């Protein structure tokens, strides 16, 4: 290979690479930056000639108005979409991580009869589209029978004990704590891969020191599982935060941020003061930005550690 | 000592059940039973009754109707599958290229990584449609003012029309118009592929260079085979992601049948058909990949 040609191809590659990456990065950043820019400018400056990115003046009115309309400022906590979503999201995500960590550990470190069959069910639960079980799932929480006990009691009492979990956060917590929340299967998979890669000696040493299975898990494995815990927790928080379909199904009245955002446009149309298309567009941009702001903040804080964690969870190995 | 290890092993076996027990309860009540019920609903007459539904089995009428009469349904299914297939192909190619580049050393690499992982956190369909700018209001406003369309492809299209056959051309412009979606869909795949690339030891690159391999040869004979298990993972992820996307037309039909037509039975039948199709396609992927995936055995 001639060195000069080599250098030429390298330079060419470098240029192509830069253009390619810059183009794609633009595709990702442009709408987000435009969102920021549109949300802080007065409505009159949206698409005003001469204003593309940097507005002539800055205002917080859009934020105030959007937050009011998205019910983010309600003083009663149960009606406040942000409070609802934070609580729902964090509790569900923590429950989900807890149970899937247990299950992942069980699948990774113990031999028991039916293990591959059960793990097959985990894989199945990842593959089966939610829509194929959506009707019975809804009915099982609409007429919750305490896992059959309510109907059993019905045989004695003559009337089954059924509770509706619709509009109750429990409709999210219950599947999450039982490892069947949003994409729980993927979490179990990640934990299993991670725990499988840890050395056997850890267990033996703990066992010799007199720790039981749970002691070994909580005192030896969990403290060493930070990358897997962080990865699944962040993913779970993101999935629960962005969820719309389950929320729409189980929460006709209980308001979350994604539900408020879904109804945002019609709220804007019915309000005379925001009926103007420019106003609407600004409001939509501001509202969307508000709805992903917590996630963006989370991402900024943990970005470095998160990407390192994914590389170390062994999803890959 | 034959007695003692046995009991230790047995204890461990029971402990295994203990660890998976909470999940097992969930799997039973929130997955397996609903799955069975869904299939049962699809062959039954349903009546809403206090405390649930009344079921009377009527047979496979709905499946017959779907395959022989519901032209709309079969077309939607075929189109959705085709779309997911193509989408997976493009997303995979794009994410491999991006991951390989992000794995190289250049200035601003960390920043670029942070940018390309951003789509991982914006998975909300609603926010996406606003980012994409295709809500009605935005279209209304755009018409008058400045458009921020990325590719003004009309002139180019007219030029290409003279050299390329129409079918290829529409496909190309389709890709260009969808590049936004593909980039936004590739977050997780890029992340996982990059993680995979980092497990490939750097010594291999040295060895290949000494043997006189070009960059392209290194990529196709070393990187790609070593990456293939991860690649399979990302392909399957993309397929599942595409098929379980509530936005796709077939899923919309399933949901509409349940929520608007209140025809739970037909919705369940549609869902069961979909389930079989999804399982079959993932199974097929695994089967096809057996020859293509290379596992480094240590």
Order of helices and strands of chain B: HEEHHHHHHHHHHHH
Mean pLDDT of chain B: 81
- The dominant shape of chain B is globular
Classified by CATH, the class of the largest domain in chain A is Mainly Alpha
Characterize the structure shown:
The complex is a heterodimer of chains A (317) and B (298). Chain A is an all-alpha fold. Chain A has two domains: 1-59, no CATH class; 62-114 and 165-312, MetI-like (MetI-like fold, Orthogonal Bundle), CATH 1.10.3720.10. Chain A has 15 helices and no strands. The longest helix of chain A has 38 residues, at 3-40. The relative contact order of chain A is 0.13. Chain B is globular and about 75 Å long. Chain B has 13 helices and two strands, in the order H-E-E-H-H-H-H-H-H-H-H-H-H-H-H. Chain B is 75% helix and 4% strand. Chain B is mostly helical. A two-stranded antiparallel sheet of chain B has the order 1-2. The interface between A and B is large, with 97 and 99 residues.
Layout of helices and strands:
The complex is a heterodimer of chains A (317) and B (298).
Chain A (H helix, E strand, L loop, with lengths): L2 H38 L20 H9 L11 H29 L5 H13 L6 H9 L6 H9 L12 H8 L6 H13 L4 H8 L4 H9 L4 H17 L2 H6 L6 H6 L1 H7 L6 H36 L5
Helix pairs in contact in A: 1-15, 2-15, 3-7, 3-8, 3-11, 4-8, 8-11, 9-10, 11-15, 14-15
Chain B lengths: L2 H40 L1 E6 L2 E6 L3 H8 L2 H32 L6 H9 L7 H8 L3 H9 L9 H8 L4 H20 L1 H12 L4 H8 L4 H29 L5 H11 L4 H29 L6
Antiparallel strand pairs in B: 1-2
Helix pairs in contact in B: 1-13, 3-8, 3-9, 3-11, 9-11, 11-13, 12-13
């Amino acid at each position: 290979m001639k060195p000069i040609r080599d250098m030429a191809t390298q330079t060419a590659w470098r240029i192509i690479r830069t253009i390619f990456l810059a183009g794609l990065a633009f595709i990702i950043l442009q709408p987000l930056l435009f969102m920021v820019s549109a949300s802080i400018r007065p409505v009159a400056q949206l698409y005003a000639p001469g204003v593309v990115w940097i507005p002539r003046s800055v205002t917080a009115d859009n934020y105030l108005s959007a937050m009011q309309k998205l019910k983010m400022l309600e003083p009663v906590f149960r009606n406040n979409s942000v409070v609802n979503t934070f609580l729902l999201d964090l509790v569900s995500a923590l429950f989900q991580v807890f149970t899937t960590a247990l299950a992942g550990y069980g699948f990774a470190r113990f031999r028991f009869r039916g293990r591959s069959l059960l793990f097959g069910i985990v894989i199945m639960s990842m593959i089966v589209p939610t829509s194929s079980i959506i009707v019975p799932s809804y009915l099982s929480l609409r007429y919750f029978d305490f896992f059959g006990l309510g109907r059993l009691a019905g045989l004695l009492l003559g009337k089954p004990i059924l509770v509706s979990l619709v509009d109750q956060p429990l409709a999210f917590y219950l599947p999450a704590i039982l490892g069947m929340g949003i994409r729980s299967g993927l979490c179990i998979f990640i934990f299993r891969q991670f725990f499988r890669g840890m050395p056997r000696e850890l267990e033996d040493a703990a066992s010799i020191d007199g720790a039981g299975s749970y002691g070994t898990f909580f005192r030896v494995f969990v403290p060493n599982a930070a990358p897997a815990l962080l990865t699944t927790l962040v993913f779970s928080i993101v999935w629960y935060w962005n969820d719309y379909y389950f929320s729409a199904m189980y929460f006709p009245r209980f308001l979350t941020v994604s539900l408020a955002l879904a109804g945002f446009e019609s709220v804007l149309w019915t309000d005379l003061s925001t009926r103007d298309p420019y106003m609407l567009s600004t409001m939509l941009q501001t509202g969307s930005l508000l709805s992903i702001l917590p996630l963006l903040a989370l991402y900024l804080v943990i970005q470095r550690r998160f990407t390192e964690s994914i590389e170390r969870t062994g999803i890959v190995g | 000592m034959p007695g003692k290890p046995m009991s230790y092993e047995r204890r461990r076996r029971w402990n295994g059940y203990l660890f998976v027990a909470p999940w097992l309860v969930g799997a039973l009540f929130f997955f397996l039973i609903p799955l069975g019920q869904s299939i049962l609903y699809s062959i039954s007459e349903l009546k809403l009754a206090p405390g649930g539904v009344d079921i009377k089995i009527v047979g496979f009428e709905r499946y017959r109707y779907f395959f022989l009469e519901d032209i709309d349904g079969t077309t939607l299914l075929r189109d959705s599958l085709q779309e997911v297939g193509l989408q997976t192909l493009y997303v995979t190619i794009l994410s491999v290229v991006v991951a390989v580049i992000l794995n190289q050393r250049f200035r601003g690499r960390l920043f670029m990584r942070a940018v390309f992982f951003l789509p991982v956190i914006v998975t909300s369909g609603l926010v996406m449609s606003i980012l994409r700018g295709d809500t009605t209001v935005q279209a209304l406003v755009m018409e008058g003012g400045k458009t921020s369309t990325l590719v003004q492809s009309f002139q180019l299209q007219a030029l290409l029309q003279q050299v390329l056959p129409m079918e290829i051309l529409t496909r190309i412009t389709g890709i260009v118009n969808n590049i936004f979606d593909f980039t936004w869909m590739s977050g997780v795949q890029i992340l996982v592929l990059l993680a995979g690339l980092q497990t490939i030891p750097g010594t291999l690159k040295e060895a290949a260079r000494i043997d006189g391999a070009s960059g392209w040869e290194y990529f196709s004979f070393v990187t790609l085979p070593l990456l293939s298990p991860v690649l399979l993972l990302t392909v399957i992820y993309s397929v599942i992601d595409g098929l379980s996307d509530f936005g796709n037309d077939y899923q919309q039909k399933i949901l509409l049948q349940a929520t608007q037509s209140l025809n739970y039975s037909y919705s369940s039948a549609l869902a069961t058909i979909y389930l079989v199709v999804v399982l079959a396609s993932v199974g097929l992927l695994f089967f096809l990949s057996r020859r293509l995936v290379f596992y480094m055995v240590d």
